[in-house]
Amino acid sequence: MNSLMSLLLLYLSLLFSLITTIISFHHRRRHAISGPPTYPIIGCLISFYKNRRRLLDWYTALLSQSPTNTIVITRLGARRTIVTANPSNVEYILKTNFPNYPKGKPFTDILGDFLGYGIFNVDGDAWRAQRKLVSHEFTARSLKEFFITTLEEEVEKELVPMMESLAETEKVVDLQELLRRLTFNMVCRVSLGVERCCLDPKEPEQPLSKAFDAASTICARRGAAPLVVVWKVKRLLGVGSEKELKEAVGEVHKEVSEMIAIKKEVMGNNNGDDQDLLSRLIAAGYEEVEIRDIVISLIMAGRDTTSAAMTWLFWLLSCHRGMESAVVEEATRTATRMEGLEDMKLLKACLCESMRLYPPVVWDSKHAVVDDLLPDNTPVRAGDRVTYFPYGMGRMEGLWGKDWFEFRPERWFVDNEENSCELKRVCPYKYPIFQAGPRVCLGKEMAFVQMTYVVASILRRFEIRPVSQKRPVYVPLLTAHMAGGLNVVVKRRCQSKTETR
Fold first, then answer.
1. Distance between CA atoms of 43 and 367, rounded to whole angstroms?
2. Record-annotated residues binding heme (predicted)?
3. Are 486 and 315 in contact (CB under 8 A)?
4. End-to-end CA distance of the chain, in Å?
5. pLDDT of residue 124
6. Kind and range of the H or E element at 481?
7. Known binder of ligand: residue 421?
8. How far is CA 87 from the centre of its chain?
9. Could you give the angle at the alpha carbon of 265 between the alpha carbons of 259 and 270, nearest 5°?
10. How far apart are CA 358 and CA 150, in angstroms?
């Protein structure tokens, strides 16, 4: 019976794709829309398959060739997709006509098994209610103070001693994994009030962290599948990667639910510290499943994004020693505590430039509710996937100039020089690393504080030297990362040039 249902589902999906592809082919001919070579029935399936292992660079090349920096992708077995690197379109999607571009059911289906009804996977009233709650908590002075105290403790008591030990032995370490563990501990302590793992990459990962990795990877593969029906049939039959996803999500749910139960017990005994976000959600009276899904979304958002950004920055600075020296000098002459972070403008410019070239989130998709027309005159039909593409936007000559491919932090200063004292205000729709509009990232300020403090604390004390001269490979999943990690040797920085504490 399951096999018969699967075949029927496959047949209906292919029939629907065939009809929409034929319509799109004739529509493209009438409107001269930019995109890859597209044919009746199959759409651009041939080009897509040929470029499936380099989709980011393929999309970027197509966008740079388009007069509007917008392309339309139509292929058999997939929803019609509009990909844009045009800031006017991005502003229209994320702000001007925000109600017409929710995440949509196709998106929430992909992540629903993992994120449930958490803030990053819902629209409408459910999103507004969670956004209001989380926004209130994120702006609370007490949570900010708790975050800063936790960050200082994690860096000074855990990260720095670990780096000292690595410098003593000069053993090779995966810096990406070390930073991932640090940020995972941070988000667990601030969100859940618990510490989950040892920073040493040689120690085994905790079950929650491993399950998060597995679930994130499989959900990302769902989104990139050439035929949506494939993963849906596998889920229906409970086989392959979908079986693995079910097991991983079960582990995540079990771990988080246990933490909620323990937290409730502690709070019931009046022995709890209510500064963490989980305590606040419980006190607000939310149901356990709602709390679980919100917490899972927040862990996913805070766990890999900042660690990925820092990893790419350390690699870029190792390739630009002059800029590294300037950042070290800035970090050394400013205060070693939180008070000096606002003065580290060059380091913030370096972070912005690193995320321009290697954004933690490669793209983000919405789904049109009704027919529409984008500002660049690209027609949108109800149900279309509309994707803005930060990776490609960071590589558009029209946005960043002929030197877009260069790591040049000085482009972020008003006078285009690193010794300038004022950073530019860059349009968030030109640089949508933290989204923009009503769904702008609530943790943006905390993310910059965390990255600035961690990077400055490391560079002030240590030299980070990659062991390989090869260019790392950028891997786009739900959050992007460096394939194989970043293996480095840690050395103490010469004390005659800089302070160590």
1. 20
2. 441
3. yes
4. 68
5. 92
6. strand 481-482
7. no
8. 19
9. 125
10. 27
CB-based contact 400:357 (threshold 8 Å) = no
Tokens of 4: 């018969």
Q: Tokens for 331?
A: 């970090």
Please give the sequence-ordered ranges of beta strands (E in DSSP) within 237-370, or none if there are none: 364-367
Check residue 24 and give its pLDDT. 47
Predicted local distance difference test score (pLDDT) of residue 199? 81
Residue 196, pLDDT score: 64
Among candidates 289, 269, 262, which has minimal Cα distance to 193?
Answer: 262
Single-letter code of the amino acid located at 117: Y
CB neighbours of 182 closer than 8 A, spacing ≥ 6?
Answer: 154, 155, 158, 159, 199, 307, 454
pTM: 0.88
Tokens, residue 421: 């004292």
Q: Taking every pair of C-alpha atoms in the chain, what is the biggest distance, in angstroms?
A: 75
Number of H helices, E strands in the chain: 20, 11
Point out which residues pair with 470 in neighbouring strands: none
For every residue of 193-213, which 3-state class applies, written as one string? Answer: CCCCCCCCCCCCCCHHHHHHH
Do 384 and 79 meet the contact criterion of CB atoms below 8 Å apart?
yes
- Between 140 and 363, the higher pLDDT residue: 363
The tokens for 100 are 């017409």
Distance (Å, whole) CA 202 – CA 352: 31
**Sign of the CA dihedral with 13 first, then 57, 309, and 95 last:** negative
If residue 308 lies in a helix (H) or strand (E), which one and from where to where? helix 305-319
Sign of the C-alpha dihedral computed for residues 478, 439, 96 and 106 taken in this order = positive
Tokens of 349: 């410019």
**How many beta carbons lie within 10 A of that of residue 4, not counting itself?**
8
Q: How is residue 22 written in tokens?
A: 């034929």
pLDDT recorded at residue 78: 80
Q: Which two tokens stand for residue 350?
A: 């370096």
Phi, psi torsion values for 476, nearest 5 degrees: -90, 115
Digit-coded pLDDT (tens) for 323-351 = 999 999 999 888 666 777 888 999 999 99
Residue (of 494, 3, 484, 496) closest to 239 by Cα position: 3
Pairing state of beta strands 385-388 and 364-367?
antiparallel
The C-alpha atoms of residue 409 and residue 421 are separated, in whole angstroms, by 13
- pLDDT tens per residue across span 378-418: 999 999 999 999 999 999 999 999 999 999 999 999 876 65
